[in-house]
């Protein structure tokens, strides 16, 4: 299969790319699309044959459920139920954070195929704020299953070129709308009995959600109930360790090491390659750079990537979640 990459910069390019994407989606094919978080691999969520192509292209295990993207709250209610007991809180959160990087795990309606939900009684639902994805969803007029557009377990793509690196020859179309803005996957929550449980950390932080009610974080996952919960995920091919500070790390003899530094003040002597998440220690900037710089270091033929821990506040908690999962030994820190 030949994979086409089409730009969506100018108005004319965007119109053409959207039309081609919708045509392919209606034909049961896959399309890589930009979202505000990372690039997603979209398919008609109600077409089992199309959804199975996602699992095949990504080498994704069937027990890992998919996020379903819709165009509105009204469309969300066609595929999922908003429980009455939590309706007021859920709708308040949707009103504040949709469109945007917040995904809700809700009881699914029968229209959602088992393969989308991995056999669970729930479905993960969100509305993307990206203008290209939103336009495709609106023109398509239905629900789109869209996990990240990369091989399963690998670093999520924040550029069209990343998608090509992962899935060239496996999907027909990539729509290139340049870099994503957040650089991290959406926050996933479950709302029950007036409480908000974070199932996956992301751009919408616990601090943001605390304005609406009691917030807890699911730290010990016994069974996958939402996408992105596996202990080893978002991983480069190169071995990665997380350290508190590069100053405290002794580079092993005859080891070609790369450094993913938190800020510019970090020690870099002896490292073959260095990428700095944010020179000024800005967590939003660090999040936007995380997967891009991890991918660049992974391409550099290193023996080891050393990643410095960032502040565990706000979106820093999501960055640390991704780094710990990306470590060769889950949770590894030196």
User: Remind me, CATH topology of the largest domain?
Assistant: DHBP synthase
Can you list the strand order of the major beta sheet? 1-8-2-3-7-4-6-5-9-10-11
Number of strands: 15
Q: Roughly what fraction of the amino acids lie in strands? A: 15-25%
Question: How is the quaternary structure best described?
Answer: single chain
> What is the overall shape?
globular
Output the CATH homologous superfamily of the largest domain.
DHBP synthase
Secondary-structure class: alpha/beta
Give a short account of the largest sheet.
11 strands, mixed
Q: CATH first level of the largest domain: which class?
A: Alpha Beta
Instruction: Tell me the distance between the termini.
Output: 44 Å
Count of helix runs:
10
Q: What can you tell me about this protein's structure?
A:
With 334 residues, the chain is α/β, with parallel strands linked by helices. It folds into two domains: 4-217, DHBP synthase; 240-326, 3-Layer(aba) Sandwich (Rossmann fold). Helix content is 29%, strand content 20%. The protein contains ten helices and 15 strands. The protein has helices at 11-26, 48-58, 73-79, 87-97, 114-117, 131-140, 160-167, 206-209, 283-298, 316-326, and strands at 4-7, 31-33, 40-44, 67-69, 102-107, 122-126, 144-145, 173-176, 187-192, 195-200, 214-217, 240-243, 257-261, 273-276, 304-308. The strands form two sheets. The chain has an eleven-stranded mixed β-sheet, sandwiched between helices. Helix 1 crosses helix 6. The N and C termini lie far apart (44 Å).
């Amino acid at each position: 299969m030949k994979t086409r990459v089409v730009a969506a910069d100018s108005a004319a390019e965007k119109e053409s790319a959207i039309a081609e994407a919708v045509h392919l989606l209606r034909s049961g094919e896959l399309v890589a699309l930009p979202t505000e978080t990372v690039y997603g691999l979209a398919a008609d969520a109600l077409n089992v044959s199309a959804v199975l192509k996602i699992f095949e292209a990504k080498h994704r295990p069937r027990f890992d459920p998919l996020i379903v993207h819709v165009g509105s709250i009204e469309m969300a209610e066609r595929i999922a139920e908003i429980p009455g007991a939590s309706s007021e809180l859920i709708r308040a959160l949707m009103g504040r954070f949709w469109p945007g990087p917040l995904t809700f795990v809700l009881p699914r309606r029968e229209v959602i195929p088992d393969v989308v939900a991995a056999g669970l009684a729930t479905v993960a639902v969100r509305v993307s704020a990206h203008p290209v994805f939103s336009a495709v969803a609106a023109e398509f007029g239905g629900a789109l299953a869209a996990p990240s557009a990369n091989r399963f377990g690998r670093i999520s793509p924040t550029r069209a070129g990343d998608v090509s690196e992962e899935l060239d020859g496996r999907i027909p179309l990539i729509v290139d709308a340049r870099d994503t803005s957040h650089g991290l996957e959406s926050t996933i929550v479950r709302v029950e009995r007036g409480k908000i449980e974070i199932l996956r950390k992301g751009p919408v932080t616990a601090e943001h959600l605390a304005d609406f009610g009691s917030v807890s974080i699911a730290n010990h996952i016994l069974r996958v109930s939402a996408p992105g919960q596996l202990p080893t995920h978002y991983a480069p091919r190169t071995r990665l360790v997380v350290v508190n500070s590069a100053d405290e790390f002794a580079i092993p003899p005859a080891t070609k090491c790369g450094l993913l530094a938190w800020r510019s003040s970090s020690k870099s002597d002896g490292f073959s390659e260095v990428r700095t998440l944010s020179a000024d220690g800005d967590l939003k900037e660090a999040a936007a750079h995380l997967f891009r710089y991890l991918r660049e270091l992974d391409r550099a033929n290193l023996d080891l990537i050393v990643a410095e821990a960032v502040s565990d506040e706000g979106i820093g908690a999501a960055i640390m979640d991704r780094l710990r999962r990306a470590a060769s030994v889950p949770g590894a820190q030196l």
